[in-house]
TrEMBL record:
NCBIfam families in UniProt: mycothiol_MshD
Binding sites annotated in the UniProt record for acetyl-CoA 1: L77, V78, V79
Class of this enzyme: transferase
Keyword Transit peptide set for record: no
Chain segments annotated as transmembrane: none
Matches recorded under Gene3D superfamilies: 3.40.630.30
Domain N-acetyltransferase, residue spans: 1-140, 154-300
Lineage: Bacteria, Bacillati, Actinomycetota, Actinomycetes, Micrococcales
Name recorded for this polypeptide: Mycothiol acetyltransferase
Quaternary structure and interacting proteins, as annotated: Monomer.
Family: Belongs to the acetyltransferase family. MshD subfamily.
UniProt keyword terms in alphabetical order: Acyltransferase, Repeat, Transferase
Residues involved in acetyl-CoA 2 binding: V238, A239, V240, Q245, G246, R247, G248, L249, G250, R251
């Protein structure tokens, strides 16, 4: 490894784009790219915690990398298309597998579960332990997108950066208390996303309980169009405070977001759901969504 970690982080987005152009699927998650951007100068944090990176480079070009999440519980790997079939992916996966054997924690994501990734994982004795489905529907598909309707005592509005940050984080944390990634979002994580080019506060829709002296945030739907003006929009984060579950807010806030995306001019809407969440999958199918692809986590 002749490149510095700083140089690697600078080249990482280009490597990810090159792989996506060939494979048709992003090889690294949004959170992984954000984590890598703010990693330690040498690729390792001083206390041995936080994101880790190991990579291969040739003539000053980053050609392959394995990047961990903040807790080092999972890794993502990508090899530049014109350098594949040279053993770079296998050598990086060897390092990750050794991490699994020593700590019993590290796992590996295969975004899109492409045949080459599946073959590499199985050759190292890994098996599927988790699936994250991508489901999608055309805006003009059937059934049509519902007209938003709120239960009595609730009102909707747009997110106000700075004023709503803490309240939104509170609802998000409670709604995703048992989620391995989303439930850990911090104020720094939120503001980092708000700094991205795709962030649009008008696309973060809030539902408030307005029956008391002051409004109380009860649910939210964060939509995403990346890049701005793209033909595909995403149901990014839907959260309902557990204290307000059972009042129809999940459906209400979801339809608010779908209607917003349709009005923004996207042609397709997608979302992500755990592959073993049968009730949620059935609900989304009822709204016209079908499975488009899957991200798969492998482990020993």
């Amino acid at each position: 490894m002749t490149l510095t970690a700083e140089q690697v982080r600078a080249q990482l987005p280009d490597l990810a784009r090159a792989a996506q152009e060939v494979d048709g699927v992003a090889p690294l998650s949004e959170q992984t790219l954000l984590n890598a951007r703010h990693g330690a100068p040498d690729g390792e944090s001083p206390d041995g915690e936080g994101p880790a990176m190991v990579w291969h480079d040739v003539d000053g070009e980053l050609i392959a990398i394995a990047v961990s999440d903040a807790s080092r519980a999972s890794y993502e790997l990508v090899v530049r298309p014109d350098h594949r079939r040279n053993g770079y992916g296998a050598s990086l996966l060897d390092l990750v597998v050794n991490q699994v054997s020593e700590e019993g924690a590290a796992r590996v994501w295969a975004h899109g579960d492409l045949p080459t990734a599946r073959s590499l994982a199985t050759s190292h004795g890994l098996h599927v332990v988790r699936e994250l489905w991508k489901m999608a529907r055309p805006v003009d598909g059937e059934p049509g997108i519902e007209e938003p309707s709120l239960p009595t005592g609730f009102a909707s509005r747009r997110f106000e950066p700075g004023a709503d940050d803490e309240a939104w984080l509170g609802v998000n944390a409670r709604a995703f208390a048992h989620h391995p990634e989303q439930g850990r979002m911090t104020l720094a994580d939120l503001r980092e996303r708000m700094d991205q080019d795709w962030f649009d506060p008008t696309g973060l829709l809030l539902i408030e309980d307005v029956t008391g002296e002051r409004p109380v945030l009860a649910a939210s739907h964060w939509t995403k169009i990346e890049p701005p003006g793209a033909a595909e929009g995403e149901v990014y984060v839907v959260a309902v405070d557990p204290a307000y579950q059972g009042r129809g807010l999940g459906r209400a806030v979801t339809t608010l977001g779908l209607a917003h995306l349709a009005a923004a001019g996207v042609r397709t809407i997608d979302l992500y759901v755990e592959g073993d969440n049968a009730p949620a999958i059935a609900t989304y199918r009822g709204w016209g969504f079908d499975k488009a692809s899957a991200d798969v986590m492998y482990a020993l």
